[in-house]
Every structure is written in C-alpha cells, then in structure tokens.
Design a protein that fits this description.
By secondary structure, the chain is an alpha/beta fold. The chain contains six helices and eight strands. The chain has one domain. Strand 2 and strand 3 form a beta hairpin. The chain is 30% helix and 24% strand.
Length: 227
C-alpha cells in the first residue's frame, strides 16, 4: 500500500477529521428514526440543509469546532477578461477553517446511492465525483469528501461502486491515480476513519492557477431503519 503523498503530508488533518466526525455524528442522530422531512425519500438538498443546521448548531458546538459551515454556497467560474460567468455550481456542504499558513475548505458532495448501475454512474459522473476533477469544486484544495446516502444495503451499493473504479473509461474520465496494487482506491481510507476508501485524481490547470492532485474520501451514511 502506498504512503500518503508528500503534497498531502502538510495538510491539517486533525481539524478536518473533527469536522467529518461531527457531520457523521449529526447524520446518525437525525437518521436514527424516521422523520417527516428527513428520510430516504427526501431529496438531497432537503437532507443536506437539515444536516448542515444540525452539525453547525448542535454537534459542532458540542465539539467546539471553530470553523464555518455553509450549504448551497454558490461557486462561479468567471472569465475575468470579459466578466462572463462561465459556470455556476452550488455545493452541498462546505466546512472552512484557517491555519496560520492557509485557509482550508472541505467540500462534501452528497449523492443517493443504491445497488443499480444508474446510481453508480450518477455518483461517479459529472454531477458527482467528476466535479472535483473537471469542475470547480475543491479548487486548490487537496482534500474533499463524497458522501453516499445509502438507499440499499452497504453490501449491495458500495462494493460494486469500488469495482466500477477499475473500468478503463472511468479511470480516464476521473483521471484516477493508482493507489494500491492493481486498484484505484485506498481501503481503508488514509484520511478519515469514518470513510470507506479514498480515491486520488489529477487535475489539469484551469488557465489561471495550477492545480495539484486531489484526494477524495468516500463516506457512506445510512438510515437506521428500513425505508
């Protein structure tokens, strides 16, 4: 198994881990029982808005987190020569904090996931993981998180997703870097204990600034009852 790459070794992992752990704790509280507006049939934006409020005002405060939480933050890609807004995206949840050297923003992108191929394509595609590679999510940030909201069991949904990462077209599209022997993911995650695996991706320069690789932790959250 490969070691953590040098470009990532200086990343302030502790505050990031605290944020990821807090988000998962809030999810477990909210998903512990069926709620009228927080359940498997709720749309992703509904789930992330409620989750962000809980982690910000309940779990985050209890844990003493000092960073800032936001949801549906607008990110624009702009041609500054003309003033044209080329692209606009809204992130699901972002946690931002500062060190003495740099400001960090961890983007959490949520996607419902079941055991069907269509769901895996959605998770990995241009509205999911691909946003961290060719889009503007996580720009100039070395770490991000994909969060799969499980509608099927873990066994039905996650192992096939890992297997899909070996498909040649997927490797090319996601600019995947080899991690373990013959695999394009690290399991267990090198970033967060609550994540199942990590993927690492090359990113091309955007014409304004160079882009370093990005490592994405893949976390999977479920409801504590049958849908």
């Amino acid at each position: 198994m490969t070691s953590v790459p040098s470009w990532l070794s200086a990343f302030p992992l502790r505050p990031a881990t605290e944020a990821v752990d807090a988000l998962c704790e809030s999810w477990n509280v909210l998903a512990s029982q069926r709620r009228p507006l927080f359940n498997p049939s709720s749309k992703e934006p509904q789930l992330t808005r409620i989750l962000k409020a809980h982690v910000e005002y309940v779990t985050g405060r209890k844990r003493g987190l000092l960073g800032m939480w936001s949801t549906e933050a607008v990110i624009n890609k702009v041609d500054f020569a003309t003033g044209e807004i080329i692209e606009e995206r809204r992130t699901d949840i972002v946690y931002g904090f500062n060190t003495e050297q740099v400001g960090i923003q961890i983007v959490f992108e949520f996607k419902k996931l079941d055991g069907k191929k269509r769901s895996r394509t959605y998770y990995l595609g241009e509205d999911g993981l691909l946003r961290f590679v060719t889009g503007i999510y996580g720009k100039n940030q070395p770490v991000a998180a994909m969060v799969g909201v499980l509608i099927d069991s873990f066994e039905k949904a996650v192992p096939p997703l890992r297997e899909a990462l070996s498909d040649k077209s997927t490797v090319t599209a996601l600019k995947l870097r080899p991690c373990t022997s013959k695999k394009y993911y690290d399991q267990p995650s090198k970033l967060f204990s609550v994540a199942d695996f990590d993927t690492e991706h090359d990113r091309p320069p955007d014409g304004q600034t160079p882009q370093s690789p990005i490592r994405v932790a893949h976390c999977f959250l479920s409801f504590a009852y049958n849908s």
